[in-house]
Amino acid sequence: MSTFQTAVNESLAVTEAELESLVVADDAMSLGYRVPSTDDRDAITEQVAAVAAAFLLVVRDGAGRPELTVHIYEGDALVPTASYCIDADWARACILGDSEHSEYLQRVLDSLVSREQLAAGKVSFVEA
Predict the structure, then answer these.
(1) CB–CB of 52/17 below 8 Å?
(2) Edge-to-edge, what's the strand order for the sheet holding 29-35?
(3) Quick check: is 121 in a domain?
(4) pTM here?
(5) Is residue 126 part of a domain?
(6) Is 97 left (phi over 0), alpha (psi -120 to 50) or beta?
(7) How many angstroms separate the CA atoms of 81 and 78, rounded?
(8) How many structural domains does the chain have?
(9) CB 18 within 8 A of CB 33
């Protein structure tokens, strides 16, 4: 898992995000990172793309879990401001050429939800 952690650290460092936590269980992974603000949609998209690219590497190397749940923490917040998930099947399809990288990234971006949506029970994720 060090490959994934290294890739995520390097990718997020470029986007001004900071790794908060990485938990790996038998059937899932959970990642948390902290950002100064979630108001800049371009920055959030860049961070999501960085994590998605790192997850592609870990899935390609055979070390990925079926799902990666990601939580974004804004500033000093104790609860996630937003969350998203990445399914390993999406990554495999991209790796095998069954889908374009842009399609893979769009699926990941489509899973991005705010804390309000999570609290309202509109979305749920598997926790590692």
Answers:
(1) no
(2) 18-24, 29-35, 67-74, 82-87, 113-114
(3) no
(4) 0.84
(5) no
(6) left
(7) 9
(8) 1
(9) yes
Report which residue type is found at 73: Y
Q: First-to-last CA distance in the chain?
A: 14
Q: Are 64 and 28 in contact (CB under 8 A)?
A: no
Question: CA 22, CA 5: separation in Å to the nearest integer?
Answer: 8
CA 117 vs CA 40, 80, 120: distances in Å:
19, 12, 5
Q: How confident is the model at residue 126 (pLDDT cuts 50, 70, 90)?
A: very low
Whether 128 maps to a domain, the answer reads no
pLDDT band at 96 (very low <50, low <70, confident <90, very high): very high
Span 31-49, pLDDT tens digits = 999 999 888 888 889 999 9
105 occurs within a structural domain: yes
Report pLDDT for 128. 40
Cβ atoms of 31 and 125 closer than 8 Å? no
Q: Work out whether the CA dihedral 34, 112, 27, 15 comes out positive or negative.
A: negative
**Residue listed under structure tokens 């598997």:** 126
